[in-house]
Design goal:
Elements lengths: L24 E2 L7 H10 L8 E2 L14 H5 L3 H4 L15 E2 L2 H12 L3 H8 L3 E2 L2 E2 L33 E6 L2 E5 L11 H5 L7 E4 L12 E3 L15 E4 L15 H9 L5 H12 L2 H6 L17 H18 L54
Helix pairs in contact: 8-10
Length: about 375
């Protein structure tokens, strides 16, 4: 089987008190062939050794509580005052790799015959009925920084609002029409905090990542599925206002860190430190067993020098993830603008030229020659 399977047994002894939370215990079957798992199941009993208690909180997952050093590390959510879900448009046509395609789609919609408009709008259905965004609905409010649509899309004849860059997926920046009439779940809070200085961490809190970086970063409004393309996730803005004057970090956190390190700790320092710790695959490999319990935790170093070095590395990570638009510092080798290879160095094409485009010419494997820096 390609997916993990969980077997749940629920029992009640006596009448039980309705207000009392159930006692949840967990165990894993041995790794290996299914026959070994069947044998373990056949010998299993509720009073056998090996069961592990799960947390007793009402919304806790049915998984063992974190133990050891991992349990002492603060959760990612503990650092930030606010975190929220990304934008859920509910329809794909309002997003595109280029702005012109969006303008053409909008023109097709508003010029369509009345009977065709709803189909082209692609309404969100709830239990078979048209959901909260339909072509005929009037939405009088607007996303922060954009004009409201005072009539329904069905009655609209004007051009669409100017598309803006959008954090569609990790490292995949596309365009979106910032019209609240088109977006099912826009998360207005993110639009209120939007600015040329804002930057977001995106990652899982209800699930655990299994490969790659545990966090990715974007300076744009992130999609609900920005981190992975599925399973949602959360967005953690650095700033609590569009002017980038109030950090979205716990009020006493920076002061406590400054006291511990004997040096000033700015909001960007801590944000960059978190990126350095978790925005790479080694974090997941190092804490893979601990990540069986969903949620990211961030170890904080007690060494001021190590914190400073990690923060400097994290600034470069943020700069790269945001295409050079955040944490730029030319003196530190991070000039504003899309990152480029150093002068005199150019990408090396595969040996023999580009990868063939015919099925028979495609390679069976990919390899990298580090000396030649060539695929």
């Amino acid at each position: 089987m390609q997916q993990p399977v969980c077997i749940v047994i629920a029992t009640r002894f006596g009448s039980g008190a309705k207000a009392e939370l159930a006692h949840v215990r967990w165990r894993a079957l041995p790794a290996g062939h299914r026959n070994g798992k069947f044998e373990a199941l056949a010998a299993l009993s509720l009073d056998a050794a090996g069961w592990v208690d799960c947390p007793r909180e009402g919304r806790a997952p049915f998984l063992p509580a974190s133990v050891g050093a991992w349990a002492a590390f603060p959760r990612l959510e503990d650092f930030f005052v606010y975190n929220g879900s990304g934008v859920m448009p509910g329809r794909t046509w309002v997003i595109a790799p280029d702005a012109e395609s969006l303008r053409q789609r909008w023109t097709t919609l508003v010029r369509a015959p009345a009977a065709e408009k709803e189909r082209l709008f692609h309404p969100h259905l709830l239990s078979g009925k048209v959901g909260d965004r339909s072509v005929s609905r009037v939405v009088t409010n607007a996303l922060a920084g954009f004009l409201p649509g005072e009539i329904s899309v069905a009655e609209e004849r004007a051009e669409c609002l100017e598309p803006v860059l959008y954090g569609y997926r990790s490292f995949d920046r596309q365009w979106v029409i910032p019209d609240i009439r088109l977006i099912n779940r826009p998360n207005p809070k993110l639009w209120q905090l939007r600015s040329a200085s804002q930057v977001h961490l995106t990652g899982f809190t209800e699930e655990s990542p299994t490969a790659g970086p545990a966090l990715t970063i974007t300076g744009l409004i992130p999609d609900l599925h920005h981190y992975k393309g599925s399973f949602g996730g959360r967005a953690f803005p650095l700033w609590a206002d569009a002017e980038a004057t109030r950090p979205n970090l716990r009020p006493a956190l920076l002061a406590n860190l400054a006291a511990a390190y004997g040096q000033t700790v700015a909001a960007g320092d801590l944000f960059a430190y978190i990126a350095a710790v978790a925005a790479h695959p080694a974090y997941i490999e190092r804490f893979r067993k601990d990540l069986a319990m969903p949620g990211l935790r961030i170890p904080l170093s007690a060494d001021a020098g190590l914190f400073r070095d990690a923060a400097e590395l994290g600034r470069r990570i943020v700069w790269l993830h945001t295409f050079g638009e955040r944490f730029a510092d030319a003196a530190a080798g991070r000039p504003a603008g899309a990152p480029r290879l150093p002068a005199g160095r150019r990408p090396q094409v595969p040996a023999g030229g580009a990868i063939p485009s015919t099925p028979e010419g495609m390679p069976d494997t990919l390899a990298y020659d580090a000396d030649k820096q060539r695929l």
